[in-house]
Each structure stands twice: as C-alpha cells, then as structure tokens.
Amino acid sequence: MGSRSTTAAAIGGKELLKGAVLLRTISCGEIRRDHVGSRVELAGWVDRRRDHGNLIFIDLRDREGLVQVVFNPETAPDQHSVAERLRSEWVIQVGGLVRPRPVGAENPKLSTGAVEVAADAVEVLNESRTPPFEVSGDAEVDELLRLRHRYVDLRRAPMRDMLILRHRVVKFIRDFLDGRGFLEVETPILIKSTPEGARDYVVPSRLYPGKFYALPQSPQQLKQLLMAGGVDKYFQIARCFRDEDPRADRQPEHTQLDLEMSFVEQEDVLNLIEELYTSLVSAVCPGKRLLTPFPRLTYADAMADYGTDKPDLRFGLKMADLSEAAGNTDLRVFRSALDGGGIVKGFAAPGCAEYTRAQLDELVALVKSRGAAGLVPIALLGERGSIHDLTEADVRSPVARFLGLDAVKEIARLTGAGRGDLILVIAGPPKVTNTALSALRNELGRRLDLCDPNLYAFAFVTDFPLFEWDEDEARWDAMHHAFSMPRAEHVDLVESDPGKVIGQIYDLICNGLELASGSIRVHRRDLQERIFKTLGYTPEQVQERFGQLLNAFEYGAPPHGGIAPGIDRLLMILTGNHNIRDTIAFPKTQNAIDPLFGAPGEVEQTQLDELHIRLADDV
Ligand code: ASP
Questions:
Q1: Whose CA is nearest to atom 9 of ligand 1?
Q2: Does the pLDDT at position 12 exceed 80?
C-alpha cells in the first residue's frame, strides 16, 4: 500500500506500510466528492463499527474528522474478516477506493458524508481496551474519569476543537505582536519569589542545601528588567504559578500573554489591546459581535453601577444607591445598615413584578449565600409602564407598610423601575452588599435571557486605587501589585493618605470575567521605595525581594507599562465554556491534583536526602 512502503504486508497481497515514512496519503476528515475514483490510504481510530450482516461499516476518525469505510466480504474477504474483529478506539490503517455513497445514504451532517471508502487493505496498528467513555457522541462524562484518561478525552470533538482554536489564538497573537515590533523573550521558571499577592510554589535546591527557588507568580519583575535592558517591546506566552486556594476559574498554573512596552502611556497599551482583541475575534470567531470602541469605566463607576470591577456588560440592570431614600423610611433593616456605616442599594428587574414566592425565595437564598443578611423585594404591579399614578395597592412587598408610597416612588425613580418591574434591594456593609447584589444581577441577567450569545462585551476598567486596606492584617495592600505608578497628582498622598491614591492601573474584562490586568509602572527608585514602605516592607525585605529591580532603576530604566491577558480565560470566552479545565490540555482538578500522573506524588528517600529535606513526623 503506497509507494513509500518498505515492507509488503499480509492482507490481500496489498502493500501495507511497515516501518514506512507515512502511513496515510490523506486525512479521514479531508475526503470529499473530488476524491471519488482515487485510491486513498488512511490511518486513524475506529469510531464506530456497524455490522450489517454482509457489509461492515467503520467510521474511521482522525484529527480532521470521520469517514465511512466499507468492508465487503465478496470483494475483499480477508479484509472483511479483519474488520469483524475491530472494536472502538482500535488504531488501524486502511486502503481503498473513494466512491460516492449510494443515493439516500448520504449524511449531510458529516463533511465527508457524500462519500465512502471501499476497503481493499487493512492493518491493525494497535488494539484498544474498551475505552472508559465514548469518544463520539455528547454524553456527559464524569470529569475525573476524563482527566484520568485525558489521552482518550482529547480525541473528543470539543477538546480537539479547543486545542485547534487555542493554537490559532496563540499564533494570531504572536503574528500580531511580531508585526508591531515586539520581541518574544523567554524568562526563567526557576527564580526567586516574585510576589503578586499569592503564595509561591517553591523548589528546593540540591546544590545549595536549605535554599529554594520559587516558580514565578508572573514574569512581572523580569519584564520590567527587560525594559531596563532596552528590549523596548516584549511579550511572552508565559506560564504563571500561584499556590492559591482553589476556585472554579483558577488553576495552580495558568498561561498569560505577558507584555511590556517602553516609553508608553496608558492609552498606548489600551489601544494596542483593543486592536489585538478586535482583530483576533474577527479572525478566529467571525460572526461574533463586540462593543466598539471598547467601553471604558472607572473602577469607582463600575463598583457604583454594577457592584463589581468585572461587570458583565452584555446587559444593563444598573444599580442605584438608595441610601438616602432608604434613610427616609421606617424600615429597621435599612436604618441599622446605614447607622453601621453600610449602604442600601438595588436595581430593577424588568417585567418580574409577578415573581412567585418560590422564585423570590431562590433569590433570597442566593444573596444569603453571598453573605447578605437578606433581600427586600418591591414589586410594582400593573400593566408595564409609568408609575405616576401608582397607589399603595400597587406596591407588593413584605415591608411595604414600613416604606411608604413616597419612598417607593423615589426608589423606583432611582432604579428606573416602572409598573410590572421588581425592585431588588440589599442593605448592609458596602463590600458584602455589592458582592451579593452583583451575583443577583448576574442571576437575573441569566433568568431574563439578557446575554446575547454572539456578543463579547470587552471593556476596560481604569483608575483603580493603588492600595486597599486589608482588614484582617490591618495594613495596606497593593490593589494590583506593588509596581504600579500612581497618578501624578496623587504621588504626594502615598504616605499621608494611601486610600486616596489612584493608580495608572487598568483591567480588561469580558462577559463578567477579568481577562487582564496591567499598569504603567514605577521606574524610579525613590518612588518605588516609598510605595514599598506604605505596604509595610522593611528596608531589608525590600532589598532582599526587590533589590534587583531597584538597582536596575538606578541604571537608566525607561518609563514603561504593560498588561498580561490570561489565555485560558480568553479561551473560556471564545469557546463559551465555563470550566477553565476544558481550555487546557492537561489541567489540574479543582483540588490541584493531576489525576493522570497522580501529581503531587511522593519522591524517593534518596531524593529527599540529596536535598537535605526531612519530612515532619505528621506527614
Ligand atoms: N503581572 C501582572 C499579573 O500577572 C500583570 C501586569 O501588571 O502586567 O497580573
């Protein structure tokens, strides 16, 4: 079979490839009507075998798709008897003639559905045990089973499509940035602690007992050092390692497009990113819509209007601060929240005035799960429309009599609610209220089907505070990381009023996910030291952890800034998948386990001895 064959093989006297250069002349999924009449050699996996008494049909699958292969006992008896043994996921090589399928037997759902291959040669390249789950079909499969047999899982169409898309996305990014003068530079994986607000993964050093490398939480300092090194425009498809508590959309290691530019201002970075994402989406996901130009919100406005710094902008449901109106009511929950320094905030759910008790109970349970004490629903009854003639009888709320008609009208005005709408109000400390209300807003967006599946609502959130107060530790923390530049007019507040300092910090968000964070960086030693001081580092800690960066600042570091969009999360958006693990070839579970390799695992005693490590008695 095939002219490159070195050894003729058994079946039907045909030349089958053994030790040949190529086992196939074309991919299964590529065969079309144009190939009718030509002989092909194929290699792939048995997707399905159908035994029709006389004829045996095999769907043969490779990365490009499926093609139907027919074994006829009359014309190819030896091959037919091999085909009788074939089972799902066996790897075979087949040769045969492409012919049109009989009229009526075409499968329009399959790209190869107009043709079939009449086998005249077959060889089993490898058998397979019964696979742990079906490769074809879209049955829900237990995720642990999928991860344990990832090599089988990767043969399934959604995973194959994801890997192809991921490849195309990364290739697009590389070409785009190459065209704009960026250099791709690799930075080390074994490095020293590079704090980004998470815990480090550490690697013990054999050569220097008692000393450790740390895996980079991101190449942040390294890319800044590259700017000091005159690289000017850098990028890297970089792996970042963060030993954080597991969360659904997090992985212990994730991939970023890490980039940094010299001699730029915030606008330059945002414009580049907007151009990158706009052209990327039109290249790899034609038919999807974007909001252009990307909307820009300040952090303060995002928090006020949506209760979060990563609002899903595919829909409105804007929130209103109702504290003042609530202060004029007799409702105790409002008053005590306000007296305790809290807020009262809410939004209108259009057309939901007739929500049942059970529906409202579900919403109450949701906000309670996010820490809120409760939810005040106010339904405005009647035909949808204006509230100018609203009466007390039109207001349905468990607390209606404590509110009074005037306050309800004011709350309706502030939230933009009309008759037929349901106003949802939460009172409490600002952080909890915002978190719960934002979850509620997302839930209503989903229930009301407000998310256009073809819309990618990219947006920039800007003007983040440089510092945030950490209640538990009673100290200032960096909102983004320690290296961001304050706004020029706020530099003087770094020591005297850190909470007021706004940084030149920006995020890219999309459909409720944070896709990227970045900032213009500090590039002078004195200002960077002042920021570290406010963050509570001693001069010794600063020297130990950041000495390399501060020294570089003293040797002519240029002004610079950058950003680092997550690749895994971008793939979540582009594939519409809510599970980050489905965007990564070999992910860890939510509990940071690799079920395929069984990592983390134990190491040999000799390895521990070499590292001078003794395990504590309690492990
Ligand atoms: N290093 C930052 C991060 O990983 C991104 C940046 O500021 O460029 O979030």
A1: 517
A2: no
| CB 563 within 8 Å of CB 508 | yes
How many angstroms does the Cα of residue 464 sit away from the middle of ligand 1?
Answer: 14
- The answer on pLDDT for 193 being more than 80 is no
Classify residue 144: in a domain, yes or no: no
Other Cβ atoms closer than 10 A to 431:
14
Give distance in angstroms: CA of 564 to centre of ligand 1.
5
- Going from the Cα of 545 to the center of ligand 1, the distance in angstroms, rounded, reads 17
The CA-based angle 578-582-588, given to 5 degrees, is: 110
Q: Which has the minimum average pLDDT: 120-124, 140-144, 177-181, 196-200?
A: 196-200
Burial of 174 (0-12, 13-18, 19+ CB in 10 A): middle
**288 and 386 belong to one structural domain:** no
Rounded Cα distance, 11 and 140, in Å: 39
| 244 CA distance to ligand 1 middle (Å) | 16
Taking residues 444-462, report their average pLDDT.
96
Dihedral sign for Cα 44, 46, 50, 52, please.
positive
Residues 380 and 400 occupy one common structural domain: yes
DSSP string, 175-215: HHHHTTT-EE----SSB----SSSPPPEEE-SSSTT-EEE-
Q: Does the Cβ of 519 fall within 6 Å of ligand 1?
A: yes
**Ligand 1 site, residue 564, Cβ cutoff 6 A:** yes
Question: At 329, which CATH number?
Answer: 3.30.1360.30
Give me the domain span that covers residue 239: 160-296+459-583
CA 436 to centroid of ligand 1, rounded, Å:
27
Question: Best of 196, 215, 217, 218 to mutate for ligand 1, by most ligand atoms within 8 A of CB?
Answer: 218
What is the maximal distance between C-alpha atoms in the chain?
Answer: 95
Q: What is the pTM of this model?
A: 0.91
Summarize pLDDT for 259-282 with one digit per residue, the tens.
Answer: 999 999 999 999 999 999 999 999
Q: What is the pLDDT of residues 374-425, one digit of tens each?
A: 999 999 998 887 888 899 999 999 999 899 999 999 999 999 999 999 999 9
Clarify whether residues 82 and 197 are in a common domain: no
Residue 138 is assigned to a structural domain of this protein: no
State whether the beta carbon of 563 lies less than 6 angstroms from ligand 1.
Answer: yes
Dist. CA 219 → ligand 1 center (Å): 8
Q: CB of 562 closer than 6 A to ligand 1?
A: yes
State residue 618's pLDDT score: 84
Residue whose Cα lies nearest atom 7 of ligand 1: it is 518
